[in-house]
Design a protein that fits this description.
This protein is mainly beta. It folds into two domains: about 240 residues, Cathepsin D, subunit A, domain 1; about 140 residues, Beta Barrel (Cathepsin D, subunit A, domain 1). Helix content is about 5%, strand content about 30%. A hairpin with a 7-residue loop joins strand 4 and strand 5.
Length: about 425
């Protein structure tokens, strides 16, 4: 397996809020702030928690990702049809779209377009000054820059009509402004690791009130046709939006349903369901536990080895568990991952904002041995949190194997509990 993503990436909203508040938000995308490890996807197969007519669900897959990425691990993928607003002919189905519960908003690589749809087919968004609106996304290991445009998204049988999306690497956006640049640029499938990202985290927009109240460097930019791009405040209504929240129905959350994975596997197939308690197939079972999240950051507390990590989160966009344990050796060749001599069986407890607690068990494999299998699904992949995740325990993709996980959005109250929350 080549081109394995080392470490995790900041989701858009986390980075924006961190800048706005002058502190690191340990979450990404949405309103939350989680960390994103990139991959791609084109789904197949899968069932649902309790049956149903399938109209509110779409297949998802963990596989090696798009060919240009050279191989990814623990990345959840699906396919999305992107159309010019109101058109049924200027459309393109994008495969290898990463499904990310740690961010909000749809982002597509310009280089992935061109088979029925061009970026120029999507109307360019403008800001309050009437100038083209572009956006920067800063990650732990780089950055992306591109235009904000309007599009229709069709995901399974559901449609998000005429919502703002980002076209990363759009030639019309030009070069990224200096205040966006952070590490290497990730504007291609090879560097980004996916054709697009479907951000369906707990929050409705990718930056929220922070970007509405202030012009934040590294977020939204006013980019006149002639002149320099400068940071600009952007109303919530014009920010990238969680596509599922824009559906006409089944829009209060999502369910990620994947089978158990006990050893490295080539692929895993499952289901992404839209809505919670809106159809017979997405009902929260009585046995599930709800963990309410911090309403600003989408985080909760994890207690591990006698230490509290109050900025913890659950995130399909992270390709492993990322946490601090100095007793577990890291890999000599890949220090972003742990390489114990034998499997480590561990426990940690999580506590939601409302005080609900649970003890979770997980295991850590030798990452070098895992990667040597060339498998895409690695259930025990883990690494050190590092400086970018101080105060956080990142429950990444491995956590989502073997149980339906319910992600409730901030605006509603699925199962009678106000969001944001996560349940399993």
């Amino acid at each position: 397996m080549t081109n394995v993503r080392h470490g995790v990436l900041f989701g858009a909203r986390a980075a924006m809020i961190a800048i706005a508040l002058g502190a690191l938000a340990s979450c990404g995308g949405g309103n939350s702030g989680s960390f994103v490890g990139v991959g791609g996807g084109g789904g197949s197969g899968g069932g649902s928690p309790s049956g149903g007519n399938g109209l509110n669900q779409v297949a998802v897959t963990v596989d090696a990702g798009p060919a240009a990425a050279g191989g990814t691990v623990n990345t959840l993928y699906t396919s999305v049809t992107l159309c010019a607003p109101g058109s049924s002919t200027r459309c393109q189905t994008i495969d290898h779209v990463q499904v990310d519960t740690g961010s909000s908003g749809f982002r597509v690589l310009a280089s992935a377009l061109g088979s029925g749809l061009q970026s120029s087919d999507l109307p360019q968004a403008t800001d309050a000054f009437g100038n083209p609106l572009d956006e920067c996304v800063q990650f732990a290991d780089g950055y992306s820059f591109g235009s904000v445009r309007s599009a229709d998204l069709v995901i399974g049988n559901e449609t998000a009509a005429s919502i703002p999306v980002q076209v990363i690497g759009d030639p019309a956006a030009g070069a990224a402004p200096a205040s966006c640049v952070q590490g290497p640029q990730e504007n291609t499938v090879a560097t980004f690791g996916a054709n697009a990202i479907l951000g369906i985290g707990n929050f409705l927009t990718d930056c929220g009130i922070a970007c509405a109240n202030a012009a934040i460097a590294g977020a939204y930019y006013d980019c006149p046709v002639t002149g320099t791009c400068t940071p600009v405040a952007q109303p919530v209504s014009g920010q990238l939006r969680n596509p599922v929240a824009a559906f006409a129905a089944d829009n209060n959350g999502v369910v990620i349903d994947l089978p158990a994975v006990t050893a490295p596997g080539a692929t895993v197939s499952g289901t992404l369901l839209f809505g919670i308690d809106t159809q017979s197939d997405n009902v929260l079972p009585a046995s599930a536990t709800i963990f309410t999240l911090d309403p600003n950051y989408g985080t909760l507390d994890t207690f591990f080895n006698g230490t509290s990590y109050p900025s913890s989160f659950f995130d399909t966009g992270s390709n492993g568990y990322f946490f601090t344990d100095d007793t577990i050796p890291t890999c000599t060749d890949q220090p972003a991952f742990y390489c114990p001599s034998a499997v480590e069986n561990l426990q940690a407890s999580v506590q939601g904002a409302a005080g609900t607690q649970a003890v979770l068990s997980f295991s850590v494999d030798n990452a070098d041995a895992d990667f040597a299998t060339n498998a895409a699904a690695l259930p025990n992949l883990a690494g050190p949190a590092g400086t970018g995740l101080q105060g956080a325990f990142d429950w990444g993709m491995p956590f989502f194997y073997g149980q339906p996980v319910y992600v409730a959005f901030e605006s509603g109250a699925p199962a009678g509990v106000s969001g944001p929350w996560i349940g399993f």
